[in-house]
Amino acid sequence: MSCAKTAPQRPSQRSSEVPKADSTLLAMMEVNERLVMEADKQVLQWVQQQAAHYNQMDCGAWRMERDSETSQRAQTASTPQPKEQWLIHYQVLHLDSASAEDIEGTFTIARGELPTAIDETVQHMIANETTTIIAPWYSAFGLKGTEHVRAYENVLIHITLKEKI
Description:
The structure is a single chain. By secondary structure, the protein is α+β, with helices and mostly antiparallel strands. The protein is 25% helix and 26% strand. The protein has three helices and six strands. The chain has helices at 23-48, 68-76, 116-122; strands at 54-56, 62-64, 85-94, 99-108, 129-135, 155-164. A six-stranded antiparallel beta sheet has the order 1-2-5-6-3-4. The protein starts with 22 loop residues before the first helix and ends with a strand. The model has no long low-confidence stretch (mean pLDDT 90).
């Protein structure tokens, strides 16, 4: 008599069969890709209609170019670093310029406390600088939105980086 446990059975795998792709996941990824492309197209059209010049950032948002005075100050001033706390004020507007949110608070840089577009923007700003960005939904408030910003909504954001805390 043996007291040894029976080894668990391994699932049978037929080497000739390719695992089935999750068609629902693939369909969702395709829909999401189309939504991102449409958002990018709408934001680009908005940027092209503006008198001011904008530059696209890595996150997909477009930032208004600095004026010459701010550009000169930026050459010698330091920018916010990850994990630093800064007092930041930002105002979110719908693309028709109607106000959606007005928020001021202390935020830790690069900690996910701010929407991606705002977080990336402030990392390139200097103290007391104000800028404007146009952010597609996926780098602003995403598919959930907020109380005053609809899901999948592209927004205009005025940002002021006030002071390091």
